């Protein structure tokens, strides 16, 4: 299964509003990482991890590649009622799941920790709790493919020591393989982009 076929399958799945978590996970697992297909979207920054938009399909999801330098990680965060699928494309990621804070001022309670290596797929939603993703290698970078249904522009991050919640805006470092210029524009500017080429979804989820 190629990346273009994965995207075609996702577009077909989300032609309606139903989200079948098991079906989506099977499709994400069916794609085997091929750097030749995703390398043009994988843009690193030496100071932060980057969110790089690959496809919005029919407007019901965001598919993106996140690039993690050595020892980089996210804050503890929610997903504002979205479904979150993560597939490791290169390297490894440590996912730490947390319980929702019971009261502000109390430390966050860890539910579990799981390491995902290349082609591993995880699923997360607000009904499960909160999580943090991090590249726990001090030497190597990591690349992961993230699917969010529906897409969102803000989420809440949480202080592990106090449980304090802060709303933050999420942006893209690049879109469709081109770095975004946010100077004078909230949405960001691109010099031009080509949508992902359409293809057919093979029978990979039977």
Question: What features would you describe in this structure?
Answer:
With 206 residues, this protein is mainly β. The protein is 12% helix and 33% strand. The protein has three helices and 13 strands; from the N terminus they run αααβββββββββββββ. It has helices at residues 3-13, 21-30, 35-38; strands at 50-55, 62-68, 76-77, 83-90, 92-98, 110-117, 121-124, 130-134, 142-149, 154-158, 165-169, 174-175, 178-179. Strands 7-4-9-2-1-12-13 form a seven-stranded mixed beta sheet, with helices on one face. α1 runs antiparallel to α2. The two termini are 14 Å apart.
SS strand fraction: 25-35%
**How do the helices and strands follow one another from N- to C-terminus?**
HHHEEEEEEEEEEEEE
Helix content: 10-25%
Structural class: mainly beta
The main sheet comes to:
7 strands, mixed
Distance between the termini: 14 Å
Which stretches of 5+ consecutive residues score pLDDT under 50?
Answer: none
What is the helix tally? Answer: 3
Oligomer: single chain
User: What is the molecular shape?
Assistant: globular
Mean pLDDT across all residues, rounded?
Answer: 91
Instruction: Give the total of beta strands.
Output: 13
Q: Numbering strands along the chain, what is their spatial order in the largest sheet?
A: 7-4-9-2-1-12-13
C-alpha-based Rg, rounded = 17 Å
């Amino acid at each position: 299964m190629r990346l273009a076929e994965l995207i075609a399958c996702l577009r077909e799945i989300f032609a309606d509003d139903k989200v079948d978590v098991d079906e989506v996970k099977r499709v994400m697992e069916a794609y085997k990482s091929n750097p030749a297909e995703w390398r043009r979207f994988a843009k690193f920054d030496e100071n932060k991890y980057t969110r790089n938009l690959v496809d919005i399909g029919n407007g019901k999801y965001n598919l993106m590649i996140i690039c993690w330098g050595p020892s980089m990680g996210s804050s503890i965060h929610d997903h504002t009622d979205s479904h979150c699928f993560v597939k490791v494309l290169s390297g490894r990621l440590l996912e730490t799941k947390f319980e929702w804070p019971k009261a502000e001022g109390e430390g966050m309670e860890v539910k579990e920790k799981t390491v995902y290596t290349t082609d591993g797929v995880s699923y997360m939603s607000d009904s499960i709790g909160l999580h943090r993703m991090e590249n726990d290698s001090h030497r190597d970078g990591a690349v992961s493919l993230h699917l969010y249904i529906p897409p969102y522009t803000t989420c809440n991050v949480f202080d592990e020591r106090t449980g304090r919640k802060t709303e933050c805006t999420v942006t893209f470092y690049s879109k469709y393989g081109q770095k975004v210029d946010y100077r004078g524009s909230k949405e960001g500017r691109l010099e031009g982009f080509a949508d992902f080429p359409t293809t057919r979804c093979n029978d990979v989820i039977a």
